[in-house]
Amino acid sequence: MNNYKTPQPIKTGDTLGVCAPSGSFDNDRFNIGINRLKSMGFNIYIPSDIYEKKRYLAGEDKLRADVINSLFEMSDIKAIICARGGFGAMRILNYIDYDLIAKNPKLFVGFSDITALLVTISERAMMKVVHGPVVTSLADTNEATLQSLYEQLTSSYDLDAAFSGHNSETRELSLSACCNWLSLNAEKTLRKGVASGKLTGGNLTTLCHLIGTKFQPNFDGSILFLEDLGEPPYKIDRMLTQMNLAGMLSEVKGVIVGSFEGYGHQEFLDEIILEIFDNPNIPIVVGVDAGHGKTNISMRFATMVQINGDKKTINWLL
């Protein structure tokens, strides 16, 4: 049974709060991204503190964490999206109030360096989170990314409640019409098979850097999603090998490989993934449009999913 809290979806006119847990950001790209969120029908609250700078960071560590804590505490903020990735999310993990978040569950969206917060908030606050675009990445993204983000923000994961008044036929029609987020397709299969588990993971480099800390994620029983940007084959190999030697991958049930943008050696990546996850019972699919690529499909972490290597699909189990 999945006991993770499901934050309420938001609707047109609701307020989306913005935080900057990692690097400082380009104002022009940020403003374009904000306007795209406004075009979806949301009001946007931007705390003045996120414009602070310290070296490559968006202000002091505690300041960045305090913005997140305050956004979760504010009743008029219905969901939270991160300004950008870069580096810095790991530095604020000690300052996040996970008990506060657990008492005020809200959709929390980000990717890349934000992976450190996604996996930690989901585990410590027992709350589902969204691996999806940050504000600056919305500046030059495509319609598929925007539509996927909108669906994750506004769609209900409590389908029994959402369609309680429908008979079985109209419920099925309603699901197929509005719930594209219920499944994803991969480009190819590396290993066939079917497995179910909690979806988690994110940026490989960030996950690897959590090893040996008190925030090291637990992947037991999970469907593990991985993505990264610009890392050569030997570094991908080294990071996965380190995770494997640390015992993090021994109980993974299935693997989803997202965008490894700038990698350039897909055949090497396939070989490395198969070698690291050397278990015939672990299905592996490759080429899901999520991560640093042109398309960044939003996914709900800490939700139960089924990976089907035979059909190259990932389906949400709700």
Summarize the structure.
The protein has 318 residues and is an alpha/beta fold.
Description:
With 318 residues, the chain is of the alpha/beta class. The protein folds into two domains: 15-154, Murein tetrapeptidase LD-carboxypeptidase, N-terminal domain (Rossmann fold, 3-Layer(aba) Sandwich); 186-316, Glucose Oxidase, domain 1, CATH 3.50.30. Helices cover 31% and strands 22% of the residues. It has helices at 27-39, 61-73, 98-103, 115-124, 143-154, 159-162, 168-178, 204-209, 233-245, 266-276; strands at 15-19, 43-45, 77-82, 107-110, 129-131, 183-185, 188-191, 194-203, 222-229, 254-261, 284-286, 299-301, 304-308, 313-316. The strands form two sheets. It has an eight-stranded mixed beta sheet. A six-stranded mixed beta sheet has the order 2-1-3-4-5-12, with helices on both faces. β13 (304-308) and β14 form a beta hairpin. α9 packs parallel to α10.
Kindly list the characteristics that best describe this protein.
14 strands; 8-stranded mixed sheet; single chain; alpha/beta; Rossmann fold; Glucose Oxidase, domain 1; globular; 318 residues
* Total of DSSP H or I helical runs spanning 4+ residues: 10
Total strand segments: 14
The average pLDDT value, as a whole number, equals 92
- Pattern of helices and strands: EHEHEHEHEHHHEEEHEHEHEEEE
From the 3D coordinates, which CATH architecture of the largest domain would you assign? 3-Layer(aba) Sandwich
Name of the CATH class of the largest domain: Alpha Beta
Work out the strand percent. Answer: 15-25%
Which strand order spans the largest sheet, edge to edge or round the barrel?
6-14-13-8-9-10-11-7
Relevant CATH superfamily of the largest domain? Murein tetrapeptidase LD-carboxypeptidase, N-terminal domain
Q: Kindly, what is the distance between the CA atoms of the first and last residues, rounded to a whole number of angstroms?
A: 11 Å
Gyration radius from CA atoms, angstroms: 19 Å
Globally, the shape reads globular
